Amino acid sequence: MADSSIEPTRDQLTTLLSSTEDGPVVMLNLLRYLDVASDGSGRTGREAYNDYSAAVLPMVASRGGGIVYFGTTSPTVIGPVDEQWDDIVLVMYPNRAAFIDMTTSPEYLAIMGDRTAALADSRLVPTTQLTF
Q1: Would 31 be classed as within a structural domain?
Q2: Residue 103 contacts by C-beta under 8 Å, 6 or more apart in sequence?
Q3: How far apart are CA 112 and CA 121, in angstroms?
Q4: Which domain holds residue 103?
Q5: Distances (CA, A) of 129 to 24, 26, 27, 77, 89
Q6: Does residue 16 lie within any of the structural domains?
Q7: Burial class (CB in 10 A: 0-12, 13-18, 19+), 80
């Protein structure tokens, strides 16, 4: 399996920050938890992520966003057999600027350690709805 991805690379951040897309964005989160959180707290990875979620959801809401979907996953039907996820979360923001504002705020930076401690691997993909 490829190396895990918990935090964005500099190039990924640059791409996000330079995006000119405006309007709603739904962030696709694929999550694989550690059995035991890496921060020494004794929590499971899922417990650490739940603590992160409880703290971050008011921040998302205060910027006009919210959870679209949160669920557990089943084994992958199409994709690498060794790439399995525990949960999927779809989070809507009114625009990319709201997401960037939140993730760079002092309040967010103070709680992001719970997310980092929780995860063995993750994906975060911004999506834009298509209309037909």
Answers
A1: yes
A2: 112
A3: 15
A4: 22-73+83-127
A5: 8, 8, 11, 24, 16
A6: no
A7: exposed
In this structure, what token pair is assigned to residue 105?
Answer: 């705020």
Tens digits of residue pLDDT in 9-26? 778 777 777 777 789 999
- Residue 57 tokens read as 């959801």
What's the CA gap between 118 and 132, in Å, rounded? 39
> Which has the higher per-residue pLDDT, 20 or 62?
62
**CATH number, residue 105:** 3.30.70.100
Does the global pTM surpass 0.85? yes
Sheet hosting strand 66-72, strand order edge to edge: 66-72, 87-93, 25-33, 119-127
CA distance 5 to 11: 14
Q: Which residue has the tokens 């979360």?
A: 89
